[in-house]
Amino acid sequence: MISIVRVNSPIALLPDAQLRPLVLAYEASVRSRRWHTLLIVLAVAVAMMLASVSAEVSPSRFVENIHRFPSYIVRLFQLENGQPVWTSMGEWFWGISRWLRLLGETLLMAYVGTALGAMGAFVLCFFAAANVAPSRWLRIVVRRLCELCRTVPELVFALMFVIAFGLGPMAGVLAVSIHTVGALGKLFSEVVENIDMKPVEGITASGSSWSVAIRFGALPQVLSNFVSYALLRFEINVRATAVMGFVGAGGIGQDLIEAIRKFYYSDVSAILVLIVITVAMIDTVTSYVRHRLIGLEGRH
Amino acid sequence: MPPRSPIDLDAVRGRHEGHFRRFDRSRLQAAGAAFLAFAFLVYAMGALGFFDGKLIDGMGRLFEITGLMLPPDPGSWAHVRTFAVALAETVAIALLGTLTAAVLALPVAFVAARNITAQRVVRFLARRSLDTIRSVDILVWALIWVNVVGLGPFAGALAIMTAEIGTFGKLFSEAIEAADRKPVEGITSAGGGKLLGVRFGILPEVFPVLASQVLYFIESNTRSASIIGIVGAGGIGLHLAEAIRTLEFQQTSFIILMILATVALIDYLSSQLRFAVIGRRPMVVR
Fold first, then answer.
1. Model pTM greater than 0.90?
2. Among A171, A179, B83, B94, which is least packed by CB within 10 angstroms?
3. Domain end point (choices B37, B69, B101)
């Protein structure tokens, strides 16, 4: 097992007796690391095997059908008559006015959902932050509430709200805003937990009430971060509202799922292209504004 | 202690005029922006039909539904078994999709990383395709894969894999770009090639970060996997959507509780593993 070959190398200036235990220790550590890696790889492999059985993975079905994936993608970019879509823009985007209106509705939904959610989170976060929360029990209750709001997927809320509020954008907006309360409530309260407590203490020491201390001690420190997180959430919510129509909760998703289900290939690609462009534009604008905000914060 | 002399307010005001003014320019700008945002919010709510009276009616019905959801009740043990099997399937979909995506995203991430790929065109193409993959929702991918391999959890696993290749590609390439250059330089100076530099210089450094990101996403993908059943791609989502649509609200709340418990368990396990991999370091994603 022990290879003392290295002892003869010109680098080894130590006498053999001293070198031997060192080499042994080195090889033992390498061996234990190898075992460790092998064990992890084995564990992952076993987990994957079990998961494959449960998820009905069948390589034969995959190989049999995989040719359909590229052909599906190719067909997305073909018109009814088999020509590629860009040969006739007018025919590809035949429903542009309707789709743009629905896309506008999607953006409005994302905006209202984010704004309402951010307002809710703004109120809740000061009760959930460990350093400023007025009561321990209230803090625990608010935290659990936020957790519940963000763990239940938006679409599940949307499904239930469609029953309560009827089909239409309102169900989607409320679903998005509830999820946003949960997600932003957590982020906001973490921001509040990281503030400098000295201004708050100073204001409290001069005899002000809790709300005044929060308003003049905590708020100025956190506001730009809040806006930045809300913008980030807006970006995420645009993507989320684009699929709300899948369950009848408004926005462009309704037309998208109809086109996919009825195999209107060129419509699917046209709507997806519109969504991708819109999302990219929103991303650019919000990231610009966020960088401006972070720059503002650094100046103070 | 001698009594303090009263402050000469006017003198202080004269010296620091800016601090006494109620509205300076930046404050006016902020107030204006907030007012515009609020006005737009009111307009948007009106346009989406919030003020048509539907909101009040709906709230009443929502309370009614919430009342009907309590207490959570699966109906029968057979249902519990069905839900448990579907939930196991959900976790399997998430695990399979996430791990496969991680393996496939690794080479793409190296291509998209600035310090590995000098070719600007190749890098640009890699980044843009990752962005495009990411801006298509997981449900759309699920619908596409259902068209390709048929209904069932296999389509769900493939959908999560496709969507996550976009996310992982971006996160991994950022982690690779943040890696220290010195090990690579050391290897290059000792005569190692580019590939050796990546294998022994960069991979050991970024691997723990990548592993922790993958573990983190297993939890969020369990949540995604629990809804892709709505479009027929396997998992608990099918049962959930069915329970809601047939107005079986006690079953609905039971399924939601099962999902929450599973997600909490996965979250606990993955964060324990994450701490074992990288230590108790805060995790920043997105």
1. no
2. B83
3. B69
Q: Do B144 and A161 touch (CB under 8 A)?
A: no
CATH of the domain at B90: 1.10.3720.10
Q: Calculate how close chain A gets to B62, using CA atoms only, in Å.
A: 5
Q: Do B55 and A165 touch (CB under 8 A)?
A: yes
- Tell me, yes or no, whether B284 lies in a domain: no
Per-residue confidence (pLDDT) for residue A1, from 0 to 100 = 42
B54–chain A nearest CA distance, Å: 7
d(CA A55, CA B152): 8
* A58 part of contact set with chain B, CB < 8 Å: yes
Return the number of CB contacts < 8 Å for A and B. 161
Q: Are residues B234 and B99 in the same domain?
A: yes
Residue A105 has pLDDT above 50, yes or no: yes
Question: Do residue B236 and residue B96 come from a single domain?
Answer: yes
pLDDT for A299 = 46
Which residues on A lie below 8 Å from B61 (Cβ)? Answer: 163-165
Which range, of A186-195, A226-235, B268-277, averages the lowest pLDDT?
A: B268-277
Boundaries of domain holding B59: 9-69
Chain A residues whose beta carbon lies within 8 Å of the beta carbon of residue B59: 164
Condensed to tens digits (0 to 9), the pLDDT of residues B43-59 reads 998 888 888 877 888 88
Contacts of B93 in chain A (CB under 8 A): 51, 55
Higher pLDDT, B284 or B137: B137
Average predicted confidence (pLDDT) for chain A: 85
Across all residues in chain B, what is the average pLDDT?
84
Q: Evaluate whether residue B3 is within a structural domain.
A: no
Q: Which chain A residue has its CA at the smallest distance from B232's CA? A: A261
Q: Write the ipTM.
A: 0.80
Alpha-carbon span B230 to B237, nearest angstrom: 5
**A interface mutation test: which of B227, B249, B286 has the most A CBs within 10 A?**
B227
Whether the CA torsion A99, A104, A107, A112 is positive or negative: it is: negative
How many structural domains does chain B have? 2
Distance CA A235, CA A186 (A): 17
Predicted confidence at residue A5, as pLDDT, reads 47
Cβ of residue A36 closer than 8 Å to a chain B Cβ = no
How far is A113 from A234, CA to CA, in rounded Å?
8
Confidence band (pLDDT; 50, 70, 90) for A182?
very high
Using the predicted structure, report yes or no on whether residue A154 has a pLDDT greater than 60: yes
Q: How far apart are CA A102 and CA A242, in angstroms?
A: 10
Among the partner-chain residues B58, B153, B259, the one whose CB lies closest to the CB of A164 is B58
* For B224, nearest residue in chain A (alpha carbons): A153
**How many Cα neighbours within 13 Å face the side chain of B134?**
21
B175, B243: one domain: yes
Contact A177, A116 (CB under 8 A): yes
Q: Examine the pLDDT at B2 and tell me if it is beyond 60.
A: no
Instruction: Return the amino acid letter for B285.
Output: V
Percentage of residues in chain B with pLDDT exceeding 90? 13
* Number of neighbouring beta carbons within 10 Å of residue A173: 34
A99 closest CA partner among A228, A249, A273: A273
Q: Would you say residue B283 lies in a domain? A: no
